[in-house]
Each structure stands twice: as structure tokens, then as C-alpha cells.
Predict the 3D structure of the following.
Amino acid sequence: MATVPGVLLNNGVTIPQLGFGTFQVPPEQTAEVVGEALAIGYRHLDTAQMYGNEAGVGQAVADSGLDRSEVFVTSKLNNGFHSHDAAISAFDASLAALGFDYLDLFLIHWPLPARDQYVQAWLALEELYAQGRVRAIGVSNFHQQHLRRIVAEGSLVPAVNQIEVHPYLVQDDLRALDTELGIATEAWSPIARGRVLADPVVAGIAEDLDRSTAQVVLRWAIQRGDIVFPKSMNPARMRENFQLFDFALSEAQMVAITALDRGQRMGPDPDEFNVVAS
Ligand code: NDP
């Protein structure tokens, strides 16, 4: 079984650099799909209140026979729960759905700048962290100005910033600020939901290395130091995405993939996104 390296977060907690994403895994199939991921060797699971599948993730961990401490689990605060009390209750609901008594990482899912409550949400997460109910706290989809604001107004620097990153949206400016502030970057939609897999440059490198295009793109993210958690419901692809540590891209191959950047988002722009749960 491949050994997944750990990334040391700014509070001393280590997170596996490769995990398994669960966005759009239907709730009724989640326990089975995540169970398969754990059997393959994934030890880092990424879910969110918004995905509606936390219960299945918790079920899979319970059914796996693994000790809770062997699996790193992230969840995220749903939009619409940014006020202090709503954030605390939402965290309680996440833990209950997962069936856990602590979470490894809890993130503010989106900044929703039009609502201007993310600082309040951050202070609530700081409280949960101080109480030892979560091992690390962080943010997702935060741009430079959102990060600078919580760093100025809060007491803790987020452990991670989970943002959209793939070869068509390399995000080097935002990643550089993360690094400057001591924040680890997590790259969501690392294979752009499949859309970079037919790219001729990626396909050429994959052919040269005798690897799949998905493996090449995920390996590029790993070599840049980002934390990734590709999602797949197909066991063969889940296994393929886990085999990233027995080959490497050359510097020239890394540069060629980074040069594919075209500023293309698969998801919404965090400056504008303002959809909340009802
Ligand atoms: P990914 O970039 O991981 O792509 C997933 C898609 O690619 C699926 O359709 C999957 O299909 C397909 N796929 C996976 N592996 C392969 C492969 N080896 N070859 C060909 N196709 C493949 O997209 P996601 O949007 O799911 O991002 C990953 C994770 O990031 C999410 O699951 C979630 O945990 C997180 N995320 C966080 C967001 C945030 O706002 N914080 C937003 C979006 C995602 P199939 O299942 O059929 O294999």
C-alpha cells in the first residue's frame, strides 16, 4: 500500500496530503463508497454539511474497523450559519451526524462577503478549537482580502485554505499568500471534475510516463505541495487516484502543466457567491 506523506499544519497537527472527496456522493451510497476508499487506503476524508452525506462518512469510519484516530476527517460550516450561535449549533449537528466526539478539521465553507459575517463565524470556530472539540480550524474559498481580515480580527491563523486549484486555475498569487501567512493550501476539484483529462499537454506527459492523465494532474498538485482529495465513485478510479507516490514529474513537466493556466473556474467566484441554505 502506498504511503501518503503528511503535511504539518501551523498548529502542529499533521494531515495526509492525499484524501478522498465526497462532494456529490449521494447520501444513500456514501457509507459504501467511503468504505471502499478506506479499504483502498485513504485515511483522509473531506465532507461538508452542504453535501448532506456526513452520516454516511461517519458510518463508513465506524464500520471500517479502524480506530477513529487513524482517519482524518474534515467537515465545513454550511452557508447561512455564520452568526456565532448558528455556527456552534451547526458544528454540534455535524458531530452528531458523523457520530464523532471530535472533528479533525472544520472550515468556513464560503466567505459570503455580501453577508459580512465570516469574522463572527471565525471567532466561533476559534472557540470550538479552544474547547478541544476540533483539532484544527480553517477556511475555504477565502480570497486575499478575506484572509487578511480574519488574521487581523481573530486570534488564530487558519490552518488551511481550501480553494479551487487545477491546471486551468493555478491560483499562484493566492497560494503564495497562504504560504506567507503559514496556511496550507488544499486544492479542490484537483482534476477540474474531469475537464483537464483530455488536455493534449497532460495527455502527452501521461504517455511519456505511462500513467493516466488523472494521475499526472494529481501528482502535479502533490509536487506543488498542495493537499488534494479527488472524488470518484468508481473503485478502479479510486485506486488509480491513490497511486501517486511511485513516480515523479520532471521540472519541465511541472512547468508545462502550470503554463496551462487560463483562469477558468469550475465553481463560483467566492467574491460573488452568496447562496445560503434555507
Ligand atoms: P474532482 O476534480 O475530484 O473530479 C471529480 C470528477 O472526476 C468525478 O466526476 C469523477 O467521476 C471524475 N474522476 C475522478 N477520478 C477520475 C479518474 N481517475 N479518471 C477519470 N475521471 C475521474 O472534483 P470535485 O469537485 O469532486 O473535487 C474534489 C473534492 O473537493 C470534492 O469531492 C469535495 O470534497 C471538495 N470540494 C470542495 C469545494 C469547496 O467549496 N470547498 C467545492 C468542490 C469540491 P467518477 O465519480 O465517475 O469517477
Observations:
- The pocket of NDP is lined by residues 21-23, 46, 109, 140-141, 162, 188-194, 197, 212, 214, 229-234, 237, 240-241, 267 (CB under 6 Å).
- DSSP finds ten helices and ten strands in the chain.
- The two ends are 43 Å apart (CA to CA).
